């Protein structure tokens, strides 16, 4: 790659400085990634904007290794149904799972704010230990830095994960085909609403719990259960909408789904109505979409439903046609194109 | 491992909250690591407090893989001789090199502060691209988060690295033997002084350049050149003193070195005298110690001196006796025991 032209690439040029939406999982974040990181380091290895890279050391494990990283900056550190430590383990494990890899090893790097209570740090690290044990992953290396009071927000954690691929499927948008069934693993929107309610002190009658959970077991069941998985994506920042739009655009296909068929918890729907949010755009931390051949849809759903974390799996749509990368939400009145937001509904949810 | 007792372990109990020295590479950081992280995740795999873990996937590359992570929070982002982007690539590559591994793949996770100029981000990422190219490493996966103004300091970068081991040497403190020669790869103290001078606006007549550089080439030359390397450690936070004390304590040996034989640049020595610093405690980012069998010392030095980054390599001491983990600095008047500091001379140098 030749030297970067250090002048600001369009459309980044419209934003001479970082804005919160640059971290939001939407258009602006993609502009930042493409305008800065892809220009420097090239496109992600395997597929358009995938969350893990595959490694291929000579004579490696049968199907190679997957490698991923995520920084966690959620605010507050603890929320109903989870905390930053669980997120840091499950989130990175889930990125490996989305490559069809079994998570094996993790690193954890902490940036700690001067004044953070050690008791809080211990609670978070204990949550990580339990989460790692759940997932069957070993935290094998780490690092700690401390910055002055006011230069962090309690703590930020970056975990990286290495997983072992157990298949030869080219999982990713490029494998998506016309006719594929689009499955979602459960109800959407709980994590974003749970974090926001805790942060802002909102009461919605009932306490909404984050869906924060590891997704490795159901995904590996699909892969080892004979499902010819075409694409997987966990529904984090930007929610279901961003995931579908990213996949549709990368695969150049029309994804059509029935708005009414997307499961949304009643309390989450109520909170979204109060706040003017669309649950399709709200972040999740324990949900994913899977694109599988239509004839295998029922088998895939039955495999997913064996696991509590994906007991609510349903088919929400299909891949209609190829050529144009769009997502259509079918409603009672007709259909509307769905887009990702430019930023995100609320920052720092993971 | 059983559940963590969430009460505060001694000696952490003396500090109910994080203090800057917890990130300083000295005693307090070790207390934090042992009291929090080792309690949760167990001891680092291979050797006492080593900076990289080895991975051992079934049927892997001939000698397995090494895995490491570091968070970079240096202030300011640019300093004479380097910047946070170079540090983030070279520092993590160096941790792999210290395991005798050839760096191959890296991840990069960014926490960006709202308001950071995109031009600054581009300069840093371009520096990373060049540094990665120098080291022969591919940045294959990444992540970006944005936090509100005042919740970061421009940017923090966490890189993780996977390298390929090309040897079967059990490199680490446990391999250190009585009679080993202790080599240092060049003059010490430049990085810490360069960063502090830039941060505080100090003038020392001449601009002191950081030694920030990749160490892979000379280290791999030692390993492939037939040197039976016993231990390697890069001299980052805590400087030469911390590295020697850590190794001596882990290996339970007496390390004796000649104070006068440690190379220190004249300008660095002058700055240290002005500031009351001991160059042995000042951080470096392109220096390491190597413990090798005494009979191979001259060959090892000649291999190191072929590389500009380690052209100033010298033997500074030997491993005298086993049993007690101490470091003795031999001076004209006698010898004094050397200890690591509780914190670090100045925080946020990497």
Report on the structure:
- Chain A is α+β, with helices and mostly antiparallel strands and 350 residues long.
- The first copy, chain A, folds into three domains: 1-43, no CATH class; 50-165, PurM-like, N-terminal domain (60s Ribosomal Protein L30, Chain: A), CATH 3.30.1330; 173-338, PurM-like C-terminal domain (Phosphoribosyl-aminoimidazole Synthetase, Chain A, domain 2).
- Chain A is built from eight helices and 14 strands.
- The first copy, chain A, has helices at 27-41, 84-97, 118-135, 190-200, 216-224, 239-251, 266-275, 297-305, and strands at 53-55, 65-72, 78-79, 82-83, 101-113, 138-147, 155-165, 181-184, 231-234, 253-258, 288-292, 314-322, 326-331, 334-338.
- A seven-stranded mixed beta sheet of chain A has the order 9-11-8-12-10-13-14. A five-stranded mixed beta sheet of chain A has the order 1-2-7-5-6, covered by helices on one side. Chain A has a two-stranded antiparallel sheet with strand order 3-4.
- In chain A, α2 (84-97) runs parallel beside α3 and α2 runs parallel beside α5.
- Chain A is globular, with a radius of gyration of 20 Å.
- In chain A, 59% of the residues are buried.
- Residues 1-5 and 45-50 of chain A have low confidence and may be disordered.
- At the A-B interface, α1, β2, β5, α3 and β6 of A face α1, β2, β5, α3 and β6 of B.
